[in-house]
Write a structure and sequence with these properties.
- This protein has three domains: about 130 residues, 2-Layer Sandwich (Nucleotidyltransferase, domain 5), CATH 3.30.420; about 350 residues, Amidase signature (AS) enzymes (Alpha-Beta Complex); about 50 residues, no CATH class.
- Helices cover about 35% and strands about 15% of the residues.
- The strands form five sheets. A ten-stranded mixed β-sheet has the order 8-7-13-15-14-19-20-18-16-17, sandwiched between helices.
- The relative contact order is 0.10.
Length: about 575
């Protein structure tokens, strides 16, 4: 017998007077009584029977249930069946109805599921039991169900074959059909590429940025571009063109910048692949504020071509990176944007965290940045305590590390920025002249400036405030970098604070403009750094820290990041997730 032979429509009654609204709008405390009363009145002379189907990873099930009816003189009766695991749940429903029809003459009355009706709940329980205990049913699935199963099998066989050939050729993993989003400063062909400034609001990218091209080449599909601060240069994601991006954990707080739009989408489970970039914490900062993992790879190995109008030929301390809910996603994604350089990084290296040497810095003494708050100090302390307990020997116990360079993190970063090829004042003017700090401040006071106050503050820092002594900063940068690399070697990591405090309230960073230096210092050192989420504080705001390693030791960063995230909570969704 085939399901196509079952003609149930002539029996169906799809309306109930007691159910006029959508199920989500019903009062479940009263609706079951209303339905029960209507069924009793409507089918006073009939025997009520309930049917249901079920499906799980273990197979399919169907059942019918006849409750006791003293007026009709019938006793409780039920039967459950095991159906083909290929069948969809609606086919199992039809089997339950078909078996019921084979026993008695029925009229089929639709009722909403799971509203507390005893008979319906009994049928549901029986259908689930049928998956493992039911009578075997010799009924073939529909053609469409076979077709769906074969499509899945063909896709699985293709993926396995492609992965095998990819490994043989040394090609990175691909992401066929997976959607991805990119921060708006990455050119995506045909989409707006404004960099957050009004002068470029109608500018569309003529071609993909190199990082977008590489991800697209692996089969992923760009579905959106996301908000950035002006020219990617601020700790919040806000501009005069698109406005402000809010933190999904607390909309009154910032997502960070400049990849704040990406982090907000990723944290809210709206983007599986989030393409970012980082020149002063622009990937790691939003990851920290939004409770995500992130990796900023060693500078100089990812192409910036087409990102923030760069040619890709300029020397830079910026890198392309990703934020993600899952630490294990970061290695294959990073390998894609490393392209041919990926072979210089041993991402396949097997790392036992117990063999890693741990160093830590609890807080920096840079007066412009400020000390680390109590919540983040406590988080760091708990991590150190746990790693100490796990240490297999005394030489693996975490050790404190500090260098004079951490007293001048912002100065080190600012000196690094002085070597960058792009000019912030010129880019604000869309490379038609140069924006002037005092002029824009005057315009802002009368409501005529096209820029945010953060952008104007950056103009003052570039054009008015004294610059860093280059000779002193270069020596300090090299001293710190050499000492850090010597200390860490190829098997050590530095646990470092992410910021003075968790996600701040909107606009409050205008009073603390240098807080990003906890991230920025490692851009200037050209060291890889991973951002690790460590669950939430008592206010429901994400906590975290950085894992820093010597150049090209990304695998070490990610192994430790994965271990700490799994131990201390990792990514926690900002909302309840219904499965």
């Amino acid at each position: 017998m085939s399901l196509n032979q079952v003609d149930c429509y002539k029996y169906l009654v799809l309306e109930l007077e007691s159910v006029k609204n959508k199920k989500r709008d019903l009062d479940l405390n009263t609706v079951k009584f209303d339905i029960q009363l209507e069924l009793e009145e409507k089918y006073l002379e009939s025997q009520v029977m309930y049917t249901d189907g079920a499906k799980s990873v273990n197979g399919g099930g169907a059942a019918f249930y006849v409750p006791t009816n003293k007026k009709k003189g019938t006793m409780r009766f039920s039967k459950c069946f095991k159906t083909s695991p290929i069948m969809c749940i609606m086919s199992s429903e039809l089997i339950a109805i078909s078996e019921a029809l084979s026993n008695v003459q029925l009229k089929l009355q639709w009722i909403p599921s799971h509203v507390g009706l005893k008979g319906n709940e009994e049928a549901d329980i029986l259908a689930k039991r049928g998956i493992t205990e039911g009578q075997e049913m010799n009924i073939l699935p529909c053609y469409s169900e076979f077709l769906f199963k074969y499509k899945l099998k063909c896709a699985q066989m293709w993926d396995e074959y492609f992965d095998m050939r990819s490994r043989e050729k040394g090609i990175c993993l691909r992401f066929p059909g997976v959607p991805f989003t990119a921060k708006e400063s990455h050119a995506v062909k045909g989409l707006v590429n404004s960099l957050g400034i009004i002068a470029r609001r109608h500018t569309r990218a003529p071609e993909d940025a190199e990082c977008v091209r590489l991800v697209r080449e692996k089969g992923a599909i760009p579905v959106a571009i996301t908000n950035v601060p002006e020219i990617n240069k601020w700790q919040e994601t806000r501009n005069m063109l698109y406005g402000q991006t809010n933190n999904p954990y607390h909309t009154g707080r910032t997502t960070g910048g400049s990849s704040g739009g990406e982090a907000a989408l990723a944290a809210a489970l709206a983007s599986p692949i989030s393409l970012c970039s980082d020149i002063g914490g622009s990937t790691r900062m939003p990851a920290f504020y939004c409770g995500l993992y992130a990796l900023n790879p060693t500078a100089g190995y990812t192409s910036l071509k087409g990102s923030a109008l760069r040619s890709g030929l300029e020397p830079t301390m910026a890198s392309i990176g990703f934020v993600s809910k899952h630490c294990e996603d970061l290695a294959p994604l990073t390998k894609i944007v490393l392209a041919d350089n990926a072979k210089e990084f041993d991402f396949e290296r097997k790392i036992n965290v117990k063999d890693v040497k741990f160093f830590y810095t609890e807080s920096a003494q840079d007066l412009r940045v400020g000390p680390v708050c109590k919540d983040l100090r406590k988080a760091m302390s708990e991590v150190i305590k746990k790693l100490t307990e796990e240490a297999p020997s005394t030489d693996k116990v975490p050790m404190a590390y500090y260098h004079e360079g951490f007293d001048h993190m912002f100065s080190i970063w600012k000196h690094g920025m002085s070597k960058e090829a792009d000019s912030f004042p010129k880019m604000l003017a869309n490379n038609n002249g140069e924006a002037k700090a005092f002029v824009e401040l005057g315009k802002k006071l009368i409501g005529q400036s096209q820029f945010t106050m953060a952008a104007i503050m950056k103009l003052f820092d570039d054009q008015v405030l004294p610059q860093v002594n280059a000779e002193w900063a270069e020596k300090l940068t090299n001293d710190l970098k050499n000492d850090l690399i010597k200390t860490l070697g190829t098997d050590g990591v530095l646990l470092f604070p992410s910021a003075p405090r968790p996600a701040p309230y909107h606009y409050s960073l205008l009073l603390r403009p240098f807080s990003f230096a906890y991230w920025g210092v490692f851009n200037a050192l050209h060291c890889p750094a991973a951002q690790v989420p460590l669950g939430l504080n008592s206010d429901g705001i994400p906590l975290g820290l950085q894992v820093v390693a010597a150049p090209k030791q990304e695998a070490l960063c990610l192994a430790v990041a994965d271990h700490l995230g799994k131990t201390f909570g990792g990514y926690v969704p900002p909302c309840q997730i219904y499965s």
